[in-house]
Amino acid sequence: MTSLQNIDVRWWILFVLLIAFPFVATDFFVLQVGAYSMILGIISLSLMWLAGYGGMISLAQITFAGIAGYTLPILGFNTQDVMGLGWPWWLTIPLALLFSTLAAAFVGAIAVRTEGIYTLMITLAVAVTVFFFTRQNYTLFNGFLGYAGIEPPTFFGIYLRDPTAFYYLVLTCAILLFAAVSYCSSSTYGLGLQAVRDNPRRMRALGFDVTMHRIFAFAISGFIAGIGGILLVWFNGRISPSVIGVDIVIDILVIAVIGGLRAPIGPFIGAVLFVLLDNFAIDLIDRERFNTVIGIAFLLIVFFSPDGILGLWEKYKPKPRKSKSESVEPVSNPEPAE
Amino acid sequence: MRTWVGKNPITVIAILVLVAILSLLIFTVWPDWLVDLIGRKKTFVNTLLNGLTLAGLYFLVASGFTLVFGLMRNVNLAHGSMFLLGGYIGYEVAERTGNWFMGAGAAFIALAIIGALLQVLVFRRMQGDDLRQTLVTIGISIVAADLMLAAWTGTTYQFDPPEWLFGATKLPIISAIRSNGTAVMISYPTYRLTVLFVAVVVGIALWLFLNRTRAGMMIRAGVNDREMLSATGVNVNLVFALVFAVGAGLAGFAGVIGGTALSIAPGEDVRYLLASLVVVIVGGMGSVTGAALGALIIGLAEQFGLAYFPTYGVVLTFVIMIGVLAFRPQGLLGERQ
C-alpha cells in the first residue's frame, strides 16, 4: 500500500469514472446524488473507522459533524443576525475541525470507560442531548431556526457552490479520507487498534495503552466527521438542529451498516444506495413511507448479512482469487462477552 | 440493612441531613431572605412535585428497560416505540370503551404480547450477539415509528383521566401567610399525584415480584449467572420471554400514564428512550432499585433545570450522566461486570 503501483487496477477505473461523472451527468445527479452521497459517505466513514477497526459503535458521528458545521456560521458569517463573528475561513475551518476532534476525544474518553454496548448507549445519549440543547439554546445556536446563508470560501475565483466545482471538492476530500483511513488501518497504530478491538485484555497485558488507543480512534473519527460536517453545511447553505436529529443519527448508522463495516469503501456504497433510494423511492412507493422501506432494508441486512453489501459481495464473488488483504481482515466475532 | 448502616456512617448522615433540610424547606414558611435568594416557595414545591411525578413516569419506562438489559444484555432501543405504541393502543381502547382503566390494561397486555413475540421470534435467534440485537431493535424502532406515524398521524393525543382524578388536591403545605393571618395552601393536580402513586405501587410490586416469588428468584439468578441458571434445569428461554413481556408491558402501561399526565405524539418515543437510557446509565444497568434512584435524580434535575435555568436544563441532565460515568462507570447502584 505504500506506492501507487500497488493499487488494484479496479480502483483506478473507479477513480476515472468518478472524475468523468460530471461531464456526462446532469447537475441534479452531480450535486444531489454524487456530492451528497459522498458527504454522507464521509460521515459514515468516520463511523466505519470506529466500528470496523476499533470495535466501537458510536451514534454521535453526526453530532461531531454538526459541531464542525455549527462552528462556521458562529465564528464566520451567516445571515441570521445571531453570532457570526466574521472570522476568515482560514481560521474558522481549522477551528471547526479542532472542535469536532476535541468533542469526539471527549466523548470517547467518557465512552471508553465502559465497554461494548455501553459505548453505543452513551454516544446515543450524547447525540440526543446535543440535539435538544441546540434546539433550546438561542444565544449560541439560534435554537430551532439554526443558521442560514453559509457560503463556502472562494478560491482562485472558483465559486464552490457551482455543482461541478463542489462535486470535485467533495470528491477530493472523499478520496483523501478514504486513502487516509486505508493507510491508517495498516499503520502501526491502526494494527494496534484492531488488536485492541479483538482482545483488549491481551493488549493491556502486552503493555499497550488500550484506553489511549480508543480515545485516539475517537479523535480521528471526529476529524473525519468534522470534514463531512463542513461539506454538509456548504452543501445545504444552512444548518439547524434537524440536521443532527435522531433520525439522521440513525440514517448514518443505516448507511454504514448497509454498506458494510469491514472496509472503507462500504460507507460510500451504502451512501450511494441510500441517496438513490431517498430520491427515487418516490417512484416505487409512497414518499411518506420511505422510512419503512429503509428500515426493512436495514433489518434484512442485519438479519442475513451482518457485514452489509460488502459481506454479500464477499460471499458470492467469483471464487478462485484469494483475498490479499488477509492481514487486516476485521474479525467478525470479537472476544466472547465478559 | 443494619450492616449497611454500620458500614456507611457518612452516607447515612448525609442522607439524614438532606432529608432534614428538604423537610424544613417544604414544611416551614419561608423567611424573606430565602425568597429573595431562590424565589417563591410555591415555585419550589411545585417544581419538586413536578420532578417527582416525572421521576415516577421515568421509572415506569426505565424499569422495564433495565430489567431486560439485566437479564439478557439486550439493549432494547425500541423501548421508546413500545412506550408510544402503548399510549396509542391505550388511547384507542379508552376511546372505544370510555374506560381509562380498560385502556391502561389493554396497553399493558398488548405490549406484553408483542414483547414476548419479539423475544421468541427475533432475539432468540441471535442470543449472545449483543450488537446485532441492538441493531435489530434500532431497525424495529425506525419501522415502528414510521408505521405509527401512518396510522395515528402527527397529532398530539391526550387522555381524559377518570373523572374522580380531575381537579386539584390541597396539600398540607403552607406556601405563604397572608397579611390577615390566613395560610395559603399549595394545591396540585390530582392525576399527577396519582402518577406518582402508581409508580410507587409498580415499584413495590416489582420489588415483591423479584424478591418474593419463584419467578423473580429465577430472574435474579439469571441476572447473576445465566449459564448456571440453565444448568440447574430452568427453562431460561421461558424466563427471558417472561421478562421481555413484563418489560414491554410496563413500557406500554407507561405510555398510557404518560399520555394522561402529559401527552403523546410522534417524537415522544425518542424522548422517553433517551430518558430511559440516561436513567439506567446513572442508576446502574440491570438494577431496578438503580432505575428508581436514577429516575428520581433525572426527573428532579430536569424539572429544577427547567424552572431555574431554562436553556441549560438539558445540559444539567448530561452533566449528571458524565459525572456518574466519570466516578462510577457501572452506575450508582450497578454491579461491576
Characterise the protein shown here:
The complex is a heterodimer of chains A (338) and B (337). With 338 residues, chain A is an all-alpha fold. In chain A, 67% of the residues lie in helices and 1% in strands. Chain A is built from 13 helices and two strands; from the N terminus they run αααααβααααβαααα. The two termini of chain A are 36 Å apart. With 337 residues, chain B is mainly alpha-helical. Chain B contains 14 helices and two strands, in the order αααααααββααααααα. The two termini of chain B are 24 Å apart. Chains A and B meet through α5, α10 and α12 of A and α7, α12 and α14 of B.
List keywords for this structure.
heterodimer; A: 338 residues; two-stranded antiparallel sheet; 1% strand; globular; disordered C terminus; B: mainly alpha; 2 strands; 73% helix
What does the oligomeric state look like here? Answer: heterodimer
Strand content of chain A: under 5%
* Strands ordered across the widest β-sheet of chain A: 1-2
Largest beta-sheet characterization of chain B:
2 strands, antiparallel
Strand content of chain B: 5-15%
